[in-house]
């Protein structure tokens, strides 16, 4: 069977599974067995706030660990094609390292994921100023974004499996953003090795919001990710300037290193003489997805030939930021003593487009009182024999 046909069958099956995932959302008051969801201490923040680590297990023996500091996915253990369990996300063994220095390993990103030009945007005629923590721009919610706060946890029982609910109230003016934003993130883990994240938010004042998830994946569990084969369902990207802010153009991927409509290894074109690749030092760009906004479906898939693992990404969002660990530089020692080198991980971050508050032509990120923000992301792991 041709590889393209194999991917088509894989994606068709994924769409059916996505529908099933979306249909099972009723909460239950029944207790969750400890064999499915457990809690342990993960230390405390400098101000003495305790942090817990929650382990979600499914019926296949796979497990995901999440801490309520930053909503961080600290571990995601799934089998390879030989049935050997392995952790497929980068991170640390302890809370202290996350507190000390982390390039957003595994975290929940907000209030606004990605970049906002020069840390400024105008809403209802008023200009708001944010911290510039990424060159001249604001990145991932500011100096103390949602990745650096302790969330209030609650364990849920759901028909499709155990779930962890995290809640945080971001006060009006926090990190420069208007409105008190109440955010809920629900993590559930299904028997098809799908980590599902359901985000919801409400506000008491007009604001902007763009939540995403920032796990660094390495499906081989070691080495660089250049042989990982990527497929992204997108005909266009939003090209950027030298500071990685979108120009406003929607550029076709045809004939460029950004065409991943057919599975292509990350390393095949990443070193090409291309201005956009030079700006990002590799891939660090937003793809304009070929689907209706709000519809949950497969948007990307990644295959790692050595392990046989396949990662499918499902999302309701209009864009996908694909990042290839271009700023990992060997200065961080992670889990098990692994020193994270250049391109040892990749991120698939479903979200709205970067700098949308300054681009009225992009899908809006404005949330108003009386409305509810919703965003669903699914990371599902399987194997190809």
Question: Percent of residues in beta strands?
Answer: 35-45%
Strands in their spatial order, largest beta sheet: 11-12-13-14-29-23-22-17-20
Helix content: under 10%
Structural classification: mainly beta
Oligomer: single chain
> What's the number of extended β-strand segments?
29
Question: What is the radius of gyration computed over CA atoms, rounded to a whole number of angstroms?
Answer: 20 Å
Largest sheet: 9 strands, antiparallel
The N- to C-terminal Cα distance equals 13 Å
Query: What would the average pLDDT be, to the nearest integer?
Result: 92
Stretches where pLDDT is under 50 for at least 5 consecutive residues are 1-28
| Count of helical regions | 3
Which word captures the global form?
Answer: globular
If you had to describe this structure to a student in words, what would you say it looks like?
Strand 22 (297-303) and strand 23 (309-315) form a beta hairpin. The chain has a nine-stranded antiparallel beta sheet with strand order 11-12-13-14-29-23-22-17-20. The chain has a five-stranded antiparallel beta sheet with strand order 1-2-3-4-5, with no helix packed on it. The relative contact order is 0.17. The chain is mainly β and 385 residues long. The protein has three helices and 29 strands. 9% of the residues lie in helices and 38% in strands.
List the SSEs and their pairings.
Layout: H1 3-23, E1 37-44, E2 50-57, E3 63-67, E4 72-79, E5 85-87, H2 95-100, E6 108-109, E7 115-116, E8 120-123, E9 126-129, E10 138-139, E11 152-158, E12 161-170, E13 181-189, E14 194-203, E15 207-208, E16 212-213, E17 229-232, E18 234-237, E19 251-252, E20 264-265, H3 275-280, E21 284-289, E22 297-303, E23 309-315, E24 319-323, E25 332-333, E26 339-340, E27 347-351, E28 366-367, E29 373-383
Antiparallel strand pairs: 1-2, 2-3, 3-4, 4-5, 6-16, 7-10, 8-9, 11-12, 12-13, 13-14, 14-29, 15-28, 17-20, 17-22, 18-19, 18-21, 21-24, 22-23, 23-29, 24-27, 25-26
